[in-house]
Each structure stands twice: as structure tokens, then as C-alpha cells.
Design goal:
The complex is a heterotetramer, with 2 copies of chain A (326 residues) and 2 copies of chain B (328 residues). By secondary structure, chain A is α/β, with parallel strands linked by helices. Chain A is built from 11 helices and 7 strands. In chain A, a hairpin with a 2-residue loop joins strand 4 (188-189) and strand 5 (192-193). In chain A, helix 2 runs antiparallel to helix 10 and helix 5 (90-97) packs across helix 11 (286-309). The model of chain A has no long low-confidence stretch (mean pLDDT 97). In chain B, the strands form 3 sheets. In chain B, strands 3-2-4-5-7-6-12 form a 7-stranded mixed sheet, with helices on both faces. In chain B, helix 3 runs parallel beside helix 4, helix 8 (217-228) crosses helix 12 (316-327) and helix 9 (247-257) packs across helix 10. The chains are: A alpha/beta (326), B alpha/beta (328). Bound molecules: thiamine diphosphate (2 copies) and magnesium ion (2 copies). Chains A, C: Its cofactor is thiamine diphosphate.
Chain lengths: 326, 328, 326, 328
């Protein structure tokens, strides 16, 4: 009998030691993306764009660590880590990214269109800022149903320039919606540094709407957990929305294959020095960490095997799931 | 005991209002969100009383934030509600296109899960509200997989299509017509008036010419047909659902009559009228006895003063003249 | 020979006494709207919707008082006072509102579609918030051309909920655009009080974008002139954007004919007590004021005569001005 | 000395790039605004070097704020510039509809003044970017008075139409095609290559069947026509400007051949293909010898993996098969 990764990690103490649990999830995100990045550079490639969140794991993992399955998140075009942190299966994700039939969207959607409502993931998104109105609507839906679930709305600092963020802050504040607006500032926006995009400070964008703002070191998973946890708690208990800016660093170009000519090697080196995983590892028992790493490695290897041995999606999937009824 | 169903004279807006009340009564997952729908009772007064009856959670006034307004529908529909989003004027849908087309209409495609979202939008040049409050952009939505689109021409269908949409598991856009709001129609007195999506209505049978008309042009087409009854036998078909179209009913009629006129309030290029003419040419080629004719406004913006509005929009006369040309 | 209203008012001292000039323009706005409101209630009516700005004159007049013809404004659905303050002719405006051929848009556009680029008026607007991106674009255009003209972007507190405001604040701050975002808070949004619409405070909405915010008594025309003047000066000299909230009061319903059931008589009485025109009049010589009032009265009477004696626009105007060339 | 004009093999994206450079060189009122157009040289690299050459004022990187991005075009065009707005993917136009349709396209109608605005948008499923980065929504814009819409199928037209649009005094939407970006075409070596707006291009003359094709389907239609040359004489018409359509050229061809196939990357309902079929049925009724045929993708969303994309989009074969049916 195969034991699930959760059981294996629990056996190593991940459920009793939250820091270990977070480390494990970050490592799972990292290794998932590194593996798919390798696939991208392999001969057969990846049949779609890949936006890697390597380096940003602490934001997703810290934020989602205390969420319930019934809590909701919306993600972005760069969302593998959000998906995994919210509980997506790496095998079906890998299958999706590699264009295989058992992928979450039959292998036809790829990296920007993974959406798994049954675990509260209302979708990565190809439209920058596209998840923000949906997250707001989900929070309204939870409120009407008097559920004490909450929504975390992830977005980038580039996305913060989309008008929907302001609309959402206003609505969420007026209605005291159970939502956390979480800006993952990875310091780059597509093919440029953020100075072309961001005036002022994003965590202060709630000021005019009476929405509290918080900024946090997005490479410190414990700090993220604490800051988001507090905001989630407030949201859950009727205290309304919060906007949080977590400062992190995007290790790679905008998409896999992008040479990121818009930045210097020193800049990258400096940025990568803040590696959230190295940082989290320091506080843990190296022996246990090695065990965790092995479990993660097995999981990712098996996800890749699963994907590669699954049938490539053919034209028969094209017409699936457009309408529920005609 | 008669088998005829009793009817009641009902204004178009009342049909909509009744549908909202009945569906919200029936299913507490149904909510209505929009600008001024609650406290004020709606810009047309047609949601009056709903907030008192169902509470401010379920009848929710939103700020003027159209993109998020449509997101309220998508997001709340994804977590278990059956939202109705009110678009005050169809023109304002231009601020919501991403949420409706890129997000809502593709939700099922991405997730495999249903999205029971109903969107109601008021179209047309019925008021005197000018070029930014009168447009008929329904064709845009008919080219979108994952979305159903319906358009009512009378109080019965306004009511029955809306009730069906609310119960439907797909995102459905219901286009209502400003120009009909205060018109009266006979509406069957039944417990639960449902007009199925996807089914056209043959409003009048005839053998010489088929007139396919939508929205506000349907009463005018019927009037034209009646006016010509002594000379020409006109069949009038109201598609009601314009995406997906009930092509079977439309084409059967065209095949029978061999002549086609399409009348709509929308502009002609790339419109529902173009689609219907195209379908007829493709599928009733052998049966067509005359070129199809589109009856639409000239390719201009909508003016503000009512006399100019009416000078621009086809009248029963215009439709009658077009019918005649198919027999010339 | 007929003397223009400007010459007549100048003869009364309006060009040397700015306070008198502002009073005269406010009175012109007021009497224009009262007159068209009478027309609305007349038998023949007005062939289109009318959103009256009666009570809000000080905002438009104070803001535009020191503008040049080459400066630019964008207005709203409730924009008669903006148009007049920026120099629109009352006769052609009246003709437009009454559906007459010599109207600014051939009498086919009406109250929400008056746009007169030659005096820097880029339009009233039927779309709430619709002028905000246009104003931003105009400011960019002025900047590129190295003109020292500026833009004032008028919008209501209801419009402040549109995402475009936030997009514009960000862009204007990043690029130091010569623009003033001027929120005319008249305390009502369509058919409701503003509490349904506005979270927090609008003048603080620039905080997150490093755009300075100012609030001012919108019924005090001198205060508006001073506050906007300062912001205009900053904009003109490369100092970038400002957001200003001017608090005023809407005397009538949302549109002419609206009974405004959403508010009490006491509320209205209290609001109207702040009448900016009464206030401005107090500081002026009553004799001169009476003269000014007479000049204004003549102007409006002649504008109405002009409109009513002009031909009603017929279907021939429908196809005008769609394309410059085919 | 030959009268033939020399040509140079040019990639589609280079044609666009040349047009931008030439027009910005020619007229300093021309500016380019868009996401990553400046410092980064554009998401497709086709604006590389422009910012160095013309400065950051005239080649302006914008934040990700599509509504204001379109407003930059409308507002700056109103105060004396001749702006070009880049829409990175056509799908993102859904965030700009109000500014383009309710504002820009109506500017002249409201003011009587010209608005020399050019909008460039990249359409189609040429990359592997999925259902939100591949849509062909051109039909939406063809129903809008006050707006011109063109669509190029090769480097010459991509260049010449864009140059004409920049000089045109009306808001013009130029739709470029992702799927052609890296394809090579022969482009005439002339000083100032202008392709007039409103004029269709008869790409190939023939007498049996007319194929009207747009964008990426044009090379495929030509390929299909060439493959069939021994059996069937196929005329291929590329409308180039899809609003207003050059109906004279299209209908003349259909009247001559009596048979019509329309091929496009956009979905079928209420599309340019529907418009063309409709026009043919209305105006060439007597001449038509067979039903018109539309060749379009199935009514589904655009998938991400390239093999699926290509399985969905019509190929030369598909067009050839359609041509045959008109002669069956
Ligand atoms: C509406 C829209 N505009 C533009 C794009 C193109 N685009 C994709 S990602 C991106 C940058 C997003 O930056 P940020 O929000 O900081 O996220 P990051 O890529 O840094 O994770 C852009 C402009 C898009 N996908 N959607
Ligand atoms: C995009 C859009 N949404 C909604 C409307 C309908 N509408 C017209 S005016 C208005 C209220 C505007 O309030 P505010 O900005 O405070 O201006 P005021 O009417 O108070 O002058 C609304 C909702 C519209 N015209 N445009
Ligand atoms: Mg970023
Ligand atoms: Mg207001």
C-alpha cells in the first residue's frame, strides 16, 4: 500500500510542528517547479507557457498554511505554489502542465488555467487581476451563506495597477467581506522592474478605503503565516478585509525561457540570497529535513512519472465542458 | 371547464419583477446584485420591495464598480449561490467584458463545475438616453462558448426566460428591452411560468415569408404581419434564445416559406440578423425564393431625442416594406 | 451692436474682482439650469435626461476660474456647470439640451454628450468614470507636447468607486502628469445616499500612490479656487497630480423629475442652506450684484430664445460625423 | 529597367516594426503607448529600439491598467497627438471596451472633431497561450459606427495598413495575428508603403469559387487554391479592412464565380464570415450557384497545447474540402 505524502510527512512530524510542515510544502512547490522547468528544457518541452514562482514559496505557503479546504483562494498566472499550498495534487497538476488527459483541465488548459473548486481554488488566471473580482464575489457568497470561511486573493505588484483592486477594496470595506488581499511583490512585472508600474506603496493602497494595510517579509514564511493568520482571523470573525504586501523575489524571467535581460546578475544573486527555503531550513533538524526532502523527491518523481505515462490529450477534449445543458 | 389558460394583462417590467420574486422565494441561494437594486428599488422600479422581502444580503446594492459587480456573480456562483447580476444599461457591460467572457463563460471549461450565473441587462433605445445608454451589443455574446444568451420580446417571455435562467446551471445573459418596459402583454396565469432556453417561438404561422425578429422588433413584426394578412401570409419567429439558436425551428420555417426577413434593433454588421441570414443561405439554399432581407437601423449611433430615436429604429411599416420586397 | 456677456460683466468689474467674476459665473450656471428645469416641466419638455448640478456651482466655477482655454477638463453626466465654467456658450448648450440643430452636437446628443474640444472641454459623459481615462490621456498628451497646460478631471463620489480612478492615480503619479482629480462630493449617488458607495475618504485615496490629497468646502467658491489653484500650479510646474475632494450638496433628485424619495425634507433643507451663491453674494456690493444678475438674466433669456427659435433637429443629423473619411 | 517593384523577404513582425519606425520618424505627434513596449522592446520584441530612438515620452511603458491605457489614446489623441495604443493580446481589449467603444469611437460623433487614434491588437491562437490569450473577437468591433477595423494576413499589409491607420483621422483598430509573427513574406521595397483602408485585395483570381479569408486563413486559402488549381479555379479575396467592408470587391467576385467560401480563425456565430455570407445571399442571390460555406473553428474555447490549437483551427485542407463542397 502506498502512503500519501501527507501521511508520510505527518509521520515525520509535519502536523505537530507547523514550521516543518511549511518547510515541506515549500520544498514541494520548489521541486515541482524545478522539475517542470527541466521538462521545459527537455526535448519534448512543455506545451504551454510556464511562469515560475521559484523563490516566492513562502508567500503562498505561509498564507495558506492555516486555511481550511473550504476556505477559498484566487491565484494568478504565476500560481503553481498557490495551488500546491492550497492542496492541489502534484500528479494531476504535472499532468495538466504536460498536456495529459488526467490533468485538472484535461490537459488542455495548462499552467494558467488550473482551477479546483473542490479544494477552494477558484483558479490561476491568464488575465492579470482577473481573480480579484472573483475573490470579492466569493467572499460575498461566503458572507451571504453565513459560513465562517474566508478568501485570500493573491495578486502581483504589477496587477495592483488594475482598477479592479480599488473596486474590490471599496466593496470589501463597505461590506466587511471576509477577504485578505495579498500582494506578492516579487519586484518584477513581466519584462521590467517594478519602478515602471508601482507608484507609492501597495500596502497603503487601502488607506482611502479604511482597509488596514500590512507589509511583511515575504521570504520569511513564519512572518507571512503570522501576518496573514491575523488578517484571516479578523476576516473570519467579521472584522473585514486587510491588504498585505509581502516582499519577495522572482528567481527567473517572466516565463520559462525568458532570459530576463532586464536585470543584472548581481541583482539576481542578491535576490536569490533571500531564499525562503534555505531560511526555513536553518531552524529545523537537518536529519528530519533530509527525510522530508526525500519524501518530497519521491512525490515529485512519481508525479512526473504519472504525467509522462498518461495519454497526451487529443482533440476529443476540445469540446468538453462548455455548457452544462443545451 | 375550458382548457384555455387564463391570462393577465401584465407590463413587461412586472414580468421581470415577478420572476425575481418567485425565484428568490423558491430558492434561498438566489441573490440579486446591482446598482440601486435594493434600497432604491431599481432604476426602473422593478426591484421595488425585494430588499424588504429578502434582506440586504440577498438583494445587495453595489457601488458603481462594474468589473467587480460581474465578479460578484462569478465568485458567489462558484461558492454555492445562484446570483443574478443586474446590468443597468447594456452599454455598461463594456466595463464587465473580462469578468463575463474571460472568466464566467470559461469557468466550466476550466473547472468542470457549473456556474449558475444569470446576468440581466437592459438594452435598446427605448428611453431617450443617448448613445451610451441604448446600444444593442447582443451579437458580441453570441460568439462566446460557455454562455447562453436570451432576449425577450414580451412580458411572458421576460418572466419565463428569466426564471429558467435562474435555474439553469450555465452562465446565461438575459437581455431585456428598455423600449418595452411599460408595454402590456397577456401573461398566462400559472403557478410556475417557465419558458425553456434554446426554444424559439413561432409567434404567428404563415406560408409566404418568414420574419425572424428579436426583442422590440417582435411586436412590430407581428403588427406588420397582421397588417399584411389579406395579401401575404407571414410567419413570425422569435428566437428568444439567441445563443445557442434554435436553428431547427428557424430553418424549418424558412424552408417552408422560402423567404426571409430578419428584423432587429441592433446594427447590421456581424449581428444576429447576419447569423440568421447566413444560416438560411447555407441550409435552405434550395428552398429560398428571394434574397433574405435585414431590417436594422442605419449604421449610426443612437441619438437622444425620442423622435430621432424612433426615426432610426425600424417600425412595423419598415418591416412590412421589407416583407413586400421578398415577394416583388 | 450687442455686447457679449463677458464684456458686460467686465464693465461691471468682473475681470478686476475675481470674486465678482466667480459670482457671475455661478449665477449663470444656476440660472441656466433653473431655466432648463422649467423647460423640463413645460408642456413640450426636454428631449433627454437632465442631471442638474444646482447647488454645486462653486466646485465647477472655483476650479475653472483660473484655467486657460487651452487647459483641459473632463466632465460627467452632471456637467452643465462644468461646461459653462469652462466657457461654453449658453445659447448653443440650451439648443443642444432642447434638441435643436445649432446645439453643440446638432441637438442629437443632449445633456450627457456635450464636448467642445476647442475650449478644452473633452466632454460630459454618460458613463460614470468614463472621463477619467480620457483626462489622464489628455494630461499625457500635454506633457509630451511640453505644453504647460493642465487637466482637471471632475468626477462624483459615486464615480470614485470605478477602478479607472485608481489606475489613473497610479499612472499620473508615476509620470508626474499635469492633472487634478477633482471629486465633487454632492452626498448622493444616483438614487441613494453615499453611504452605500463610499468606504473611507476619497481625498485620501491617493495615499497609496503618493498623490497628495486635499479636502475643501465645496460650497465656498473662494476656498475651491484656492485649493484647486494650488494643485493646478503644482501640475503646471511639473509637480504632478493632486486629488481634491470638494464637499457640496445636490439640491435635486438624480435626474429632473426624480422625486428623490431617498432623502428627507429636513436633509434637503439643511443641505440647501449651504447655497454657495448666497454665500458668495454676501461679500459683494448688492448694487453690483443686482446689475450682474440682470446681465445673467438677459443672457439666459436670450439663450432660451435662441434655442426655441432654432429648428428642431431632424433625422438628417443622424448620420453626421461618424467617420472623417471612408 | 524592369517595371517590377523589388521585394524583400520580411517577417510579419518586422513589417509592423518598420511601420512604427517610419511613422514615428515622419511625424513627431505619433506616440506609442503600451505594456512593455519601451524599455523591454515589446512582448514580441517588435518595438525593440523604438524607445532609444524616440525617447520615453513617445514610446511610453504603461502599468497594467488597460482601461486607462485606452484612455491614454483617446485623451492624447484629443489634444493633438496621433497615438498608437498596443493591446498585447486581443483578449485584453475586453478591459478596454468602454474607452474604445463608448468613448473613442463616439468622439467625433459628439464633438465633430477627428480622433486620430490607432489601436493595435494581437489576435489568434498562434502561440500556445490558451483560452484567455488567443481569442478572435474582431466581429465585436465591426458593428461599431465611428471605428474602422483592419486585419492583416501578411507582412506587406501589416506594414501598409498600419501606416495608413496612423495617418488616418479616425479611430482605427488594426488586428495583427499571433500565428503569423515569424512567417516571412515578400514586401515591396518602396519609400512609403501604404495600403489603403477600405480596399480589399484580390489575392488570386479565379472563376469557379470565391474564397474570402481573413488574417491567418489567407495564406491557407491561397495554399488551398493552389493545391486545387488543376481542377478548380479559385479566387481568393482578403478584405483587409473588415469595417467598413469593401463590399463592392467581395460581391463582384461572388457574382462572377457564383460560389462562396469564407474562412476565418474567429468563431462562426455573428462573425465577419456571417456578414460576408449574408451580404452574398442578399446581393448575389441570383448569381449564387451553391450555398455559401463558412470555414471556422468548432464552437469551443481555444486550448493551450499547440497540437490541439492546430487541430481546432482550419487548415488549407479544411478550406480545400469546403471549396469542393461548393462544386459538388
Ligand atoms: C489583463 C492583462 N494584461 C496584461 C497581461 C500580460 N501580463 C502577464 S503577466 C504580466 C505581469 C504581471 O506582473 P505581476 O502582477 O507583478 O506578477 P508577476 O508576473 O511578477 O508574478 C503581464 C503584464 C495579462 N496577462 N493580462
Ligand atoms: C458606468 C456607469 N454605471 C452606472 C451608471 C448609472 N449612473 C448614472 S449617474 C450614477 C451615479 C453617479 O454618482 P456620482 O458619481 O456621485 O455623481 P452624481 O450623480 O452625484 O453627480 C449612476 C450609477 C452610468 N451612467 N455609468
Ligand atoms: Mg511581480
Ligand atoms: Mg454624487
Amino acid at each position: 500500500m502506498v502512503t500519501s505524502i501527507d501521511d508520510q510527512l505527518d509521520a515525520l512530524g509535519a502536523s505537530t510542528d507547523p514550521a516543518l510542515g511549511r518547510y515541506a510544502t515549500m520544498q514541494l512547490c520548489r521541486r515541482f517547479e524545478e522539475t517542470v522547468h527541466d521538462q521545459f528544457h527537455s526535448e519534448q518541452g512543455v506545451p504551454g507557457p510556464l511562469h515560475l514562482a521559484i523563490g516566492q514559496e513562502a508567500v503562498a505557503v505561509g498564507a495558506c498554511h492555516d486555511l481550511r479546504t473550504t476556505d477559498v483562494i484566487t491565484s494568478t498566472h504565476r500560481g503553481h505554489h498557490h495551488c500546491i499550498a492550497k492542496g492541489a495534487r502534484t500528479d494531476r497538476m504535472m499532468a495538466e502542465l504536460l498536456g495529459r488527459r488526467p490533468g485538472y483541465s484535461h490537459g488542455r488548459g495548462g499552467s494558467m488555467h488550473i482551477a479546483i473548486p473542490e479544494i477552494g481554488l477558484l483558479g490561476t488566471n491568464g488575465i492579470v487581476g482577473g481573480g480579484i473580482p472573483i475573490a470579492t464575489g466569493a467572499a460575498y457568497g461566503l458572507q451571504v451563506q453565513k459560513r465562517d470561511d474566508v478568501v485570500i486573493c493573491f495578486f502581483g505588484e504589477g496587477a495592483a495597477a488594475e482598477g479592479v483592486l480599488a473596486e474590490a477594496l471599496n466593496v470589501a470595506s463597505l461590506w466587511k467581506l471576509p477577504i485578505v488581499f495579498l500582494c506578492e511583490n516579487n519586484q518584477y512585472v513581466e519584462l521590467a522592474a517594478q519602478d515602471l508600474h508601482v507608484a507609492g506603496e501597495i500596502w497603503r493602497r487601502g488607506t482611502g478605503y479604511a482597509v488596514p494595510g500590512v507589509h511583511v517579509d515575504g521570504n520569511d514564511v513564519d512572518a507571512v503565516t503570522a501576518a496573514v493568520g491575523e488578517a484571516v482571523e479578523r476576516a473570519r470573525t467579521g472584522g473585514g478585509p486587510t491588504i498585505i504586501e509581502a516582499l519577495t523575489f522572482r528567481w527567473f524571467g517572466h516565463y520559462a525561457g525568458d532570459k530576463a535581460a532586464f536585470r543584472t546578475d548581481e541583482e539576481v544573486e542578491l535576490g536569490r540570497a533571500g531564499d525562503p527555503i534555505v531560511r526555513a531550513r536553518k531552524a529545523l533538524d537537518p536529519v528530519v529535513v533530509a527525510e522530508v526532502d526525500r519524501v518530497v523527491e519521491d512525490e515529485i518523481a512519481s508525479a512526473l512519472r504519472f504525467a509522462l505515462s498518461s495519454p497526451v490529450s487529443g482533440p476529443d477534449v476540445l469540446s468538453l465542458n462548455h455548457l452544462a445543458s443545451v | 371547464m375550458s382548457t384555455e389558460i387564463a391570462t393577465k394583462s401584465t407590463k413587461y417590467w412586472q414580468g421581470i419583477s415577478q420572476a425575481l420574486t418567485e425565484e428568490m422565494d423558491r430558492d434561498e441561494r438566489v441573490v440579486l446584485v446591482g446598482e440601486d437594486v435594493g434600497r432604491a428599488g431599481g432604476p426602473y422600479g422593478l426591484t421595488r420591495g425585494l430588499q424588504d422581502r429578502f434582506g440586504a444580503d440577498r438583494v445587495r446594492d453595489t457601488p458603481i464598480s462594474e468589473a467587480v459587480l460581474m465578479g460578484l456573480g462569478v465568485g458567489s456562483g462558484a461558492v454555492g449561490l445562484r446570483p443574478i447580476v443586474e446590468v443597468m444599461f447594456f452599454d455598461f457591460a463594456m466595463l464587465m467584458m473580462d469578468q463575463l467572457i474571460n472568466q464566467g463563460a470559461k469557468y466550466r471549461y476550466f473547472t468542470g463545475h457549473p456556474l449558475p450565473l444569470t446576468v440581466r441587462a437592459m438594452c435598446g433605445a427605448g428611453g431617450h438616453n443617448g448613445a451610451q445608454h441604448s446600444q444593442n451589443i447582443e451579437a458580441w455574446f453570441c460568439g462566446v462558448p460557455g454562455l447562453k444568451v436570451a432576449m425577450s420580446s414580451n412580458a411572458r417571455d421576460a418572466k419565463g426566460l428569466l426564471k429558467s435562467a435562474v435555474r439553469d446551471d450555465d452562465p446565461t445573459l438575459i437581455i431585456e428591452t428598455q423600449g418595452l418596459l411599460r408595454d402590456r402583454f397577456d401573461v398566462p396565469v400559472v403557478d410556475d411560468l417557465l419558458i425553456p432556453l434554446g426554444v424559439a417561438d413561432v409567434r404567428r404561422t404563415g406560408t409566404d415569408v418568414t420574419v425572424v425578429a428579436t426583442g422590440r422588433m417582435v411586436p412590430r413584426a407581428v403588427e406588420a404581419a397582421e397588417g399584411l394578412a389579406d395579401e401575404i401570409s407571414v410567419e413570425v419567429v422569435d428566437p428568444r434564445t439567441i445563443s445557442p439558436l434554435d436553428t431547427a425551428t428557424i430553418l424549418e420555417s424558412v424552408a417552408k416559406t422560402g423567404r426571409l426577413v430578419v428584423a432587429q434593433e441592433a446594427l447590421s454588421p456581424c449581428s444576429v440578423a447576419a447569423e440568421v441570414c447566413s444560416l438560411a443561405a447555407e441550409h435552405c439554399f434550395a428552398e429560398l425564393k428571394a434574397p433574405p432581407v435585414r431590417v436594422t437601423p442605419d449604421f449610426t449611433n443612437v441619438p437622444t431625442p425620442l423622435p430621432l430615436v424612433e426615426a432610426r429604429v425600424p417600425q412595423a411599416d419598415t418591416i412590412a416594406a421589407a416583407i413586400r420586397t421578398t415577394l416583388a
